[in-house]
Design brief:
It is built from three helices and six strands. It is globular. By secondary structure, it is an alpha+beta fold.
Amino acid sequence: MRPADTSFRIVPPMTSDLESLEAAETAFQHALLTNDIAALDDMLHDQVRFIGPDGVTISKQQDMDAHRRGELIFSAVDQLERDTQVIDGVGITRAELRLVGTVAGAPVDVTLVYTRTWLSTPAGWLIVAAHGSAKAG
């Protein structure tokens, strides 16, 4: 397990909601790459739900347990595209990511498209819902 890099932790909103959401998405991707358990835990709302490319829904607890057990280890989290919106205080990020690493011990090299819904809080942005789909084509 890599040591935690706290330089990417979420900070309270900066000069604009859009800029702070961009920073939050960047920090989240970095936390995935470094398997920064504390940062991931800080960025995920306790009631968050994820829908994976297989259509299975998992909770924050299930996701965090997988990270703690080392079942999700990435050597690369490469952003290929990103679209960011803030609508009435709700943040939405869509990111196309190439993920390289291991999932439950099996090697992966896959491109997925993620949509994350973020809630703006006084402490910063929190992910409240996420969905990942395989890249078409």
